[in-house]
């Protein structure tokens, strides 16, 4: 008996010891702080904290004000980032952004990244992060970095924490920046529309020209504007503090062991991924059921004779007049239950006056439970990837509202795959357009069929996304150099021309042009020679005739 007790105690101690060994220190650098990005990132970090890892999170979001989000983590708030971005872009309306050309949108995209970098460095939280590295001599087993903007200012901090391995994460569509961090550039201008364009995948000749020009402009702007500015901001800030680190990221790139991407091939033109980019689509989605719905909402949905629609439109983004137009279109569906998941947004007297009688305003934290209800057939949401995935995961057809230029890419993929519908914000003024899209969202059978197929592919994954992501994090924690063999310096050194073999194509084209020019010159010379020969033969013939005439005259004169 005593032997069994000893064995049980030994096993218990081994289990406790193993769990203790698993608990690691992780530094998370999240300098972007966009709303939907936070949703995805937060789900992953909360899961890591639940697995007893010690997190230090340097973030531009306001997680620091809510102790329930990360009760055991150390939070460092980059407090100036969101304030600075709001002040910088408050004069630019959503309508102005959507009307801009793609060229201007690329400039705006990178301007935002430079402004984010500047605000990160000016925050008190950044000084705290430096103190953590230099004064407290913080040692970490892993760095998790948000690569949605590629290699940004915060990534420089990795130089101050030794040779700690890095894992990149991104909640948005993969782009040239995030793929460059993964040592690859697989996006092909002939096949993959630019991330800020609204091109479909079946581009004609002129669109391919346009798309290639966008990729080239994007590459040159990164190389000649974005990179020097970010490196300059970092160098100036560090010089003032007498801290010396490399200004570029070349030495950091080999330390990226893996990238966890919110990627699904149905929602992206890129169908295959590099070996060190792991797709974990819908990682933020948690299984739920209608039973967890509040009794009030459940009663409201089930009291309807027809389907239900979930609407997530925010007045501060969409605009009061556009929401009123949307309400006008919704009045054409009196038998349909409409749930507006935006608590506090219906306080406007004008909205209350115009809202349909079959509409109920609820808290947004009930959104997953509402989507899980079988009577909900359509969701009106923004064209953000995480919101679209959540709707598709629950088998609900998304009707997306595009409010940002970068959302057009995902909206276009939805339309191409027949997985949803889309309305530009500028089209919300047309009630008939809204009404027709709502009707299609509820009644179009092909849409519903495709969405349910996508739902099955998400729910029946061999390995759930969250389990895959945490496995990779803990695998790198235990094996810091696990993916070193995937790195080659040639990928990092290749430029826009080399990656696409344009340098070879240019040489071939120059050779062909020279051949054509040479052929034309030879043909012209040959023609000229023939003409010259023709003239000579003509003169010779004429000379012969004259000579024969002279001889004839002489013979006549002799006979006479």
Automatic annotation (TrEMBL):
Coiled coil: none annotated. InterPro entries: UDP-glycosyltransferase (IPR050271), UDP_glucos_trans (IPR002213). It comes from the Eukaryota. The chain crosses the membrane at residues 504-523. One of its GO terms (molecular function) is UDP-glycosyltransferase activity. Keywords: Glycosyltransferase, Membrane, Signal, Transferase, Transmembrane, Transmembrane helix. Pfam families: UDPGT (PF00201). The keyword Cytoplasm does not apply. Residues 1-23 form the signal peptide. Belongs to the UDP-glycosyltransferase family. This is UDP-glycosyltransferase. It comes from Stomoxys calcitrans. The lineage of its organism: Eukaryota, Metazoa, Ecdysozoa, Arthropoda, Hexapoda.
């Amino acid at each position: 008996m005593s032997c069994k007790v000893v064995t049980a105690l030994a096993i218990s101690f081994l289990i406790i010891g193993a769990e203790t060994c698993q608990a690691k220190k992780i530094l998370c650098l999240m300098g972007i702080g966009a709303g939907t990005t936070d949703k995805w990132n937060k789900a992953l970090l909360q899961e890591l904290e639940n697995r007893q890892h010690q997190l230090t999170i340097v973030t531009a979001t306001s997680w620091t004000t809510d102790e329930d989000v990360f009760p055991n983590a150390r939070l460092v708030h980059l407090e100036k980032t969101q304030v600075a971005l709001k002040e910088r872009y408050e004069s630019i309306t959503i309508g102005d952004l959507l009307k801009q050309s793609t060229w201007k949108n690329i400039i705006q995209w990178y301007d935002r990244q430079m402004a984010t970098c500047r605000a990160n460095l000016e925050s008190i939280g950044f000084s705290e992060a430096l103190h953590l590295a230099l004064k407290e001599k913080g040692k970490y087993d892993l760095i998790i970095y948000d690569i949605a903007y590629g290699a940004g200012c915060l990534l420089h901090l990795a130089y101050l924490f030794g040779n700690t391995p890095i894992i990149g994460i991104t909640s948005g569509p993969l782009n040239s920046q995030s793929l460059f961090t993964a040592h690859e550039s697989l996006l092909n201008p002939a096949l993959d529309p630019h991330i800020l364009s609204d091109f479909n995948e079946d581009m004609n000749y002129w669109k391919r020209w346009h798309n290639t020009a966008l990729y080239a402009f994007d590459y040159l702007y990164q190389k000649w504007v974005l990179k020097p500015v970010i490196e300059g901001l970092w160098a100036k800030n560090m010089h003032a503090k007498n801290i010396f680190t490399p200004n570029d990221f070349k030495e950091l790139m080999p330390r990226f062991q893996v990238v966890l991407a919110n990627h699904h091939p149905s929602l992206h033109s890129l169908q295959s991924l590099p070996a060190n980019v792991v797709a974990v689509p819908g990682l933020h989605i948690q299984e739920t059921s209608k039973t967890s719905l509040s009794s009030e909402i459940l009663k409201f949905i089930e009291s309807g004779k027809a389907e239900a629609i979930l609407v997530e439109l925010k007045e501060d983004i969409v605009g009061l007049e556009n929401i009123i137009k949307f309400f006008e279109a919704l009045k054409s569906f009196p038998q349909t239950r409409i749930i507006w998941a935006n608590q506090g947004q219906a306080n406007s007297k004008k909205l209350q006056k115009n809202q349909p009688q079959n509409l109920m305003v609820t808290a947004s934290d009930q959104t997953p439970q509402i989507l899980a209800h079988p009577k909900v057939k359509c969701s009106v949401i923004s064209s953000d990837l995480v919101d679209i995935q959540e709707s598709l995961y629950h088998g609900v057809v998304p009707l997306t509202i595009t409010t940002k230029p970068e959302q057009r890419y995902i909206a276009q993929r939805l339309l191409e795959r027949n997985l949803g519908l889309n309305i530009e914000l500028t089209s919300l003024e047309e009630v008939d357009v809204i009404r027709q899209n709502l009707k299609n969202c509820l009644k179009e059978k092909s849409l519903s069929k495709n969405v349910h197929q996508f739902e099955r592919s998400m729910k029946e994954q061999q390995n759930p996304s969250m389990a895959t992501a945490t496995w990779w994090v803990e695998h790198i924690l235990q094996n810091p150099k696990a993916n070193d063999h995937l790195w080659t310096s040639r990928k990092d050194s290749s430029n826009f021309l080399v990656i696409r073999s344009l340098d070879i194509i240019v040489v071939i084209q120059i050779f062909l042009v020279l051949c054509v020019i040479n052929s034309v010159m030879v043909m012209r010379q040959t023609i000229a020679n023939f003409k010259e020969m023709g003239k000579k033969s003509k003169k010779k013939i004429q000379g012969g005739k004259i000579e024969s005439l002279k001889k004839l005259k002489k013979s006549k004169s002799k006979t006479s």
